[in-house]
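ok new one. same drill as before - structure tokens go in, u give me an amino acid for every spot. 64 of them this time. try not to just spam alanines like last time pls lmao
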């Protein structure tokens, strides 16, 4: 997800997105441990999306 799209979201939506990404990351890590994950780059993309969301949440909290 692009940072521009994330900045347009409110904090509640960002928190929901963060929870969804964390669940997806857990699922991907579980699949990797069972050698069922075919696209390993998804782990990296998910981790970066999580960082993006957390950064924007911190920026919004700092501007309050």
């Amino acid at each position: 997800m692009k940072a521009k799209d994330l900045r347009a979201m409110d904090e509640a939506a960002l928190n929901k997105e963060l929870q969804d990404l964390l669940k997806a990351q857990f699922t991907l890590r579980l699949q990797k441990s069972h050698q069922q994950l075919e696209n390993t780059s998804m782990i990296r993309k998910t981790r970066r999306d999580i960082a993006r969301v957390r950064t924007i949440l911190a920026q919004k909290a700092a501007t309050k």
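Residues 3-63 form a domain with the Helix Hairpins fold (CATH 1.10.287.310). and btw The helical segments are 3-7, 11-33, 41-63.
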